[in-house]
Task: structure prediction
Amino acid sequence: MDKLLEGYSRFRRDAWPHQRELYEQLADGQTPRLLVIACSDSRADPGQIFDVSPGELFVVRNVAALVPPYEQGEGLHGTSAAIEFAVQALGVKTILVMGHARCGGVRAAMDRSRWGTKSGAASQNLHFVNQWIDVLVPAVMALNTDDNEPCERAGVELSLANLMSFPFVAEKVEQGLLNLEGARFDIATGGLHLFNHARGWVRATPEPAA
Amino acid sequence: MDKLLEGYSRFRRDAWPHQRELYEQLADGQTPRLLVIACSDSRADPGQIFDVSPGELFVVRNVAALVPPYEQGEGLHGTSAAIEFAVQALGVKTILVMGHARCGGVRAAMDRSRWGTKSGAASQNLHFVNQWIDVLVPAVMALNTDDNEPCERAGVELSLANLMSFPFVAEKVEQGLLNLEGARFDIATGGLHLFNHARGWVRATPEPAA
Amino acid sequence: MDKLLEGYSRFRRDAWPHQRELYEQLADGQTPRLLVIACSDSRADPGQIFDVSPGELFVVRNVAALVPPYEQGEGLHGTSAAIEFAVQALGVKTILVMGHARCGGVRAAMDRSRWGTKSGAASQNLHFVNQWIDVLVPAVMALNTDDNEPCERAGVELSLANLMSFPFVAEKVEQGLLNLEGARFDIATGGLHLFNHARGWVRATPEPAA
Amino acid sequence: MDKLLEGYSRFRRDAWPHQRELYEQLADGQTPRLLVIACSDSRADPGQIFDVSPGELFVVRNVAALVPPYEQGEGLHGTSAAIEFAVQALGVKTILVMGHARCGGVRAAMDRSRWGTKSGAASQNLHFVNQWIDVLVPAVMALNTDDNEPCERAGVELSLANLMSFPFVAEKVEQGLLNLEGARFDIATGGLHLFNHARGWVRATPEPAA
Result:
């Protein structure tokens, strides 16, 4: 906690003087154009990777950057609530689902897609994680590979497809009012790959020499 | 999206050269000591406010920085999954719940806590948001005020109390292995207030001259 | 209905005289050794394809021969109930999941795995079918092919994996008391392919000249 | 499993040569006129009892040949999905619900309808079966008898009434486009009783000398 407060102190000393006016204006209300759904992982912070200013990104972070399928049942749907708020109340123009390399959540889905491991010892005390990550298991199982990368990509594609199962998302996409994009950040190299349905996966450019 | 890619370009040009080694090390695994549960709001990014380096914070962001009560039912519990992963798999030492001023989620709960407003026009198309934010309604209703600040504080306190309803959290807190903290960031002034159960609310220090 | 009664008449005239004693014995109780989970499709009747006698097969038939994942929530779980009854009360030794070529259910999952089709006109009046078949969508989407066969195989493999998510199934499989098998019947050729986790997919033998 | 493969071998040797052309035609698509909802019981196979050819019957088999009430909630509704597919996509003209004598599912409902028996030892490990079969308990309790037969009949009548709770079924029945029938097969004697709402229960004729 001390480390956090030291960081806050640096923020007040270094960043605040420059951003003071911006924060003062933002106090009247936020008007972000983008919703980013990213992983909770400490190594893949969308604010840092996209060097954003306060007020630019509405951000959801959960395990594996997952969008669950649309489901109107009882219960609390935190990710769906944030998507609904961003699309319906804030009117964001783009939703970016950003996965990343070495994702522990995708790895867990890969582990759980192996025969008989769902009842394995490793998963005994991760009840919530397992329910959550099992959304990815059928996709990962169908890929049948030990390579993380295609599974991480499939996770991003599945989340984008699940976004399209929300009627208020599909409607706006069809009207050209909302844009769905995917990305995968490679922690070791800093590289970024982008995905959308029309174009498939491509390497992000401009890509300065690393 | 172009704006995001420009930001990524800046990140690669400015930050990456300094952080390259750190990211390369982090590719082997993350060992964050803190879980921060923050709001999706574009104006309250914990990474910026605490000036953190990659690998330091495991971050959940949802509407209103909410921790729902422990509930083992069916369905997907994204926030609970992230808490479980951070505490049980990563072994974080501190959980910080950070609310903020001008929180639209808390405001929505205040609106919905007024007599008869649950069926109001404003909430017609926000099914998921309403289910989610109703967790706050009893607290907000009890405060019976039009002032956001006490409601935003109550939200942080309620989330901390809900954290204690998770058996694996309560156990570690009681053993002194896990520390629960709250905070509220004031967008307009950049100020930060801190809360924990022993000490109540205090202004964060060091607080350099703004 | 008349056609059915004519069939019943043939059954009484032709089959009953031979099977009378067997049916009389079976009236005391059934002791089937096999549970077959097959598709409701009119062209893939396991009783005919395996030329079984009364009393041999406990049979579940549903759309696409699907086993949903284990889920202890509220609500009626017809397939799970039949699996539980067969394994726990009847003590079957083998569970066979049999898919088939030209499966309309798998085809529907393939259609629904295409971008944006979840809200398409074709699926407007098939609420229950869509919820049911969406179990297959992530697997089918990951395969990303227009060829039915790999999707039909993936459906069988997913159902077998879902069977392993039932604790009482996994336990008996691990103790060697229960055997999980898959199959895919090719309507046009009458061919049969078999699957299990140890051996993968093989063509059924003996396979007499067609 | 060996026994199944021997049966498949007989099917290929004996039945296939005669049905080959039929199966080849059916590969283009199924057009069954009937949906049969039957019990999973190994002794009551509708394909055998009605001596049907491939392509004639779309078949659902579950514990006790049960149709649950119409319920649009979340979750997977396998039987409802199959009914919807048969009625809405295939356009079947008749739905037959076929119960049978000595039905273990109905017996379980009878056991559970006795005062205090819901917590009985026998039902400890049958979580899914109990939830499923409890649909029958109110009817069985009302009959208050130890005789299986009226309970088995009541089960068929209840499933037919539940079918009428599906809007797309009721509408077609009212338009004369869909016909609902019931039956009960007597395992020990091979006899068949028929039910519909207009006529009540009658013995099936023609009934050749047994």
Notes: The CA atoms of residues 163 and 203 of chain D lie 23 Å apart. Strands of chain D lie at 34-39, 57-62, 94-100, 179-185, 192-196, 200-203.
